[in-house]
Every structure is written in C-alpha cells, then in structure tokens.
Amino acid sequence: MIHNFTVISRRPTINPLLSLTRISLCPKFLLPFPDKMQSSNAARAAQTVARVPGSGSEEMERVAEQTLTRYTFDGVPQRKGKGVAIVWFRNDLRILDNEVLFKAWASSEAVLPVFCLDPRLFGTTHYFGFPKTGALRAEFLIECLIDLKRSLMKRGLNLLIQHGKPEQILPSLVKAYGVHTVYAQKETCSEELNVERLVSKNLQEVILSSAEGVSTKFNPTNGTKLELIWGCSMYHIDDLPFSCTSLPDVYTQFRKSVEAKSVIRSCIKVPASLGPAPHVEDWGRVPEISSLGLQQEKARSCICVNISKLSADFTWLMGRKVCSCSYLLVQVSKGMAFVGGESAALSRVHEYFWKKDLLRTYKVTRNGMLGPDYSTKFSPWLASGSLSPRFIYEEVKRYEKQREANDSTYWVLFELIWRDYFKFLSIKQGNSLFHAGGPRKVKTNWSQDQALFDAWRDGRTGYPLVDANMKELSTTGFMSNRGRQIVCSFLVRDMGIDWRMGAEWFETCLLDYDPCSNYGNWTYGAGIGNDPREDRYFSIPKQAQNYDPDGEFVAYWLPQLRALPKQKRHSPGMSYIKPIVALKFGNTKPTSNRLTAPGNRRTATEEKWMSRKGNRFQ
C-alpha cells in the first residue's frame, strides 16, 4: 500500500548555495588555473561555480533599476482609493508587472505587503514523505524575500514577514489595521486553492478595527474581501478562446488557437513611489534557513566574501565563520549557483538577451547540459514569480525589432506557451494530475522498490548519464530539460518505478518547482498524461551519443570518469558502478512491436519533438 512508503529514508539535507549579491570576492582566493587546463572548457568548469546571472552585484542592481524605470509611470498617477489594503505575496515575488501590487496601491491610501512562511510548505510530500521544500529552494526563497524587501523599501514600503498559516495571519492583520481588501495572485492547484478558501472564510468573520496613524474611515459593508488576480501566465486566462474545462488535450491545438485568437496583455507599470505603508512596529527579518527546520550540509569548499560590504539587509548572515582576513566563508559547490530575487532575474534576462546575445541561437543550443548559457535558465525566477512571463515576451519582441527575429526568438515564446498550457491544464485536470493513473486513469502496476529508487535518487544506477544528472540536481537544484526527460524515462521505463516517487523527489529538489509544470511533465513522461501519444522511451546510449558525445557532462559530475578516453565515459565497464538494472531495450535500436504501436513510436521525429517540451525555461 502507498501509505507504507511514507517512511522512506531521506538523504542528508541538500547544501544550499548562498547568494553573492552585493558581496565581493576575497582577492587571495581568486587563483589562476594551471596552464594545462586552459585549453579545456570541461576541465576549467570542474574548478568553478557558475553564478547565474554572471553579472557582478553592482551591474545586477543597475540593470534591475534601469529595467524597473522603463516600467514606471511617467508623472504621478492618480490614486483615489481609501483605507488600507494588504498585498499577500505568494508566487509573485516581484514589482515589475505585478497587477496585485498595483491594484492594492490604486485602491487604498496605504499598502501593507505581507509574506507568510506557511509551515505546510516545509512539511512532507503527499505520498512518500519527502521534504516539500529542500534546503536549496528554501535558500533561493530567502534570497527572493531579501531582494523584494529591499525593492519595496526603495519605493516607500516594506515587507512584513510572518511565520504561520495565511488563514490565521491575514485575518489578524486585517483586524489590527482595518484592512478593506486583501489582494493576492490566483493559484490553480488543490493545496493552494484550499488555503485561498480558508483565508476567504476567515476574513468574512473579522470585525474591523482602526489602525493607528492611518485613516481607516472606509468601512466595507460586507467585511474584508479577498480579491484574487490572475498573473502567473503569459496569456491571461480571461483571454483564452475557450474555457479551461474545454482546453484541448493536445498542446499543438492549444498553441495554434491562442496564437491565432488571443493577444498577450502589456506589462503592468507601477508608480515610482508605492507608499505610504501603515505604521508597523516590527516588520520582521528575513529568516535564516535553520528557522525553517532545514540545515545546511557541510561545505565541500568555501570562498571568502568581504563582510564590510554587506548591507543592512544581509545582517542575518553575520555570525557565521569568518577567516583571518575578515571575509565571510560562504558555502559553494560545483555547478551553477542561482541568485534569488527579481534583481537577479532581470539581470539574467539582460545578460542572456542583450549582453551575451544568446537569444539568437537558443533553439540550437537549448538541449545542452553543461554550463549556464546553453539555455535561458529563467525557470527558477518564473516559478517564484520573481520574473513575469509577459516581460520576457516584451523583451523578445524588443530584441526582434532591434536585432533579429528567427526560429530561436520564437522558440522562447513557444516554451512559454508550454508553461501556460500546463497552468491551464491543471485547472482542467484537478487532482488527477497527482494520481497514479494520471488524467487518463491508466492502470499500471508500478513498483515502489525503495532500493532501486534510492539508487536513482542518489546517482548510483551504474549509468553515467543518469547518475550525472541526478548529482547535478541534488547539488544545484537544477537539471537541464534534456536531463529531466532522460532520468524520468529511465525511472519509469527501465526501472518500472512509480512516477510519483520521481515527481515528489523533484518537488523537494528543484529550484524551479511548480506543481503544474512538474507533475504535468511527469505524467507525460510516464505515458499517463492527457495526450495518449506521449508514451515514449528514451534510449540512454542514444541520448548520450547525441547530447554528450565526448562525455564532458558525465566527467564533470562523476570525476572518476575524467581519466577515461572520451569514447569510454558512457560505457566505462568495470571502471564504474555495475548497472543496477538492464536497459529495457539494451544498447541497440529497439525493434519491439511495442514501439511500433500508435502511442509508442520512437523515431528521429519523436525525439526532435520531445526536445521542444520540458520545464519551460531552463
């Protein structure tokens, strides 16, 4: 029975990567690479951590402020509202193109921004009891909150951070400050919807009182309202040419329909000043990760950062180990270290589109695996709401106008439409998205073998391409689109393991986790999605040959393979772990009748098509 697996053993908590925002590196730790390594990108990469975005802190802040200035009202817009409104920040941790924030400002005399650290977000997953939020994503969230708090303070507000359930915290604040409306972004999945219902119910029971220092003469006749605003997709839900219950079961039909019949709305501009805020005695501090019930893994390596340049927003970092040069030791590991927050998100868009001019080749490079620049890497900021998909759309159109329009510029929008599709699909499918049989209620005898799953999770399967991807995930909180498809196929096709175990482990680890894209992709990968034609198998040897032919990716994450000849890195024999299972179709091109069935074709066309979809912006 499924409930017997809620006590699956968990691996040690993942090492979070701390943001280096506004922090300078200690010069004595910037060591040159040996000459023999200069000619090898892979060898050089093995010695570095790629910060995403790669811009320095000053440049990152400059780009963010310049971008926000472009989306600021000219002059002073009229503000006719009364009383106090709350902005309940959820997965919309940004200022640019935030209709929730703008409507709260326009409808009030004072705005109270609130973020609730809901303990349920740090509980366990539904079926198998993994942590719902791993340490890496928690650290990324902390960085997002630091950046949002700082940005709001620049515009005359602040961010009240509260520990507890929104349905308890928000009514209490409403009563204390005489709030007439709580504004928040609308979500689509059952857990989030349940919180919305509880908040709305409890708000109706509040008897308003006035708040000191702010006029609260405005008294709504029907109590405080919860106003939910759609803002998580590129195409607005009200602009679709069909209802979500009538959403096409095939992505291509959805895409062609919205492209032909729907218009993408412009980004919402904001006033230069969003204040005032009501008088708050204690705005609270951004939490340390330990206060969320998570612990940092012992660092594999350290770099030093100058603590003298830390702003007040970063005083929570103080007290950690400092080396003899008075520089703070910050934990780092290999791979990519994503910086959380809207400033980092806007800087990454600028870096990828304009500074490095990588947009023009996105379609060609997007199936890469190694390094920060083979794809956009926008997904962590999209998932946290630090980055608006409509802003990306407008930047693509600006790029096409000023530089070039080609297949690559369109493909970024193509992927954003995939992300939209999974958002709207979650409304149509409801909780079937999380059930073993998926939306089509497919009957499959899934295995829940813990030893096999642990080997997959820990990167000990004996297949270097699978293991390298899983080690990247646990180390950085990220995995390429191609890698996600490979490890998913291996888990459910070759190992026969319940896809929900993989989906829930991804829920723990991914920086860019959101339930719609994560579970939507896993149902597709497991062959139980709403489109029956998506039942496909990925051959590990072929994937290795096509996407890591020299074994640079596997050698990066599996150091024991670096000494092997390139052609042996994916088939190292006795030099590596013995494969834990045999591949379903071995190392040769499959000829089974199963693969010639209508729902199971695996051809060059199929693999090309599959490369188009994935986790919406990596």
End-to-end span in angstroms? 36 Å
Tell me the strand order in the biggest sheet. 4-3-2-5-6
How many H/I helical runs? 20
Work out the radius of gyration.
24 Å
Q: Report the major sheet.
A: 5 strands, parallel
Q: Shape from CA axes?
A: globular
Region (Disordered): 588-618
Function: May have a photoreceptor function.
Cofactor: FAD; (6R)-5,10-methylene-5,6,7,8-tetrahydrofolate
Keywords: Chromophore, FAD, Flavoprotein
Helix and strand layout, with pairings?
Elements: H1 41-45, E1 49-52, H2 57-70, E2 84-89, H3 99-106, E3 110-117, H4 135-154, E4 160-163, H5 166-177, E5 179-185, H6 190-203, E6 225-229, H7 251-261, E7 301-306, E8 327-332, E9 335-338, H8 342-355, H9 362-365, H10 379-384, H11 389-402, H12 407-429, H13 450-458, H14 464-476, H15 481-494, H16 499-509, H17 515-525, H18 540-547, H19 552-557, H20 604-610
Parallel strand pairs: 1-9, 2-3, 2-5, 3-4, 5-6
Antiparallel strand pairs: 7-8
Helix pairs in contact: 2-8, 5-6, 11-12, 12-17, 14-15, 16-17
Structural overview:
The chain is of the alpha/beta class and 618 residues long. It has 20 helices and 9 strands. The strands form 3 sheets. It has a 5-stranded parallel sheet, with helices on both faces. It has a two-stranded parallel sheet with strand order 1-9. A two-stranded antiparallel sheet has the order 7-8. Helix 14 crosses helix 15 (481-494). The radius of gyration is 24 Å and the shape is globular. Residues 1-47, 210-219, 297-332 and 588-618 have low confidence and may be disordered.
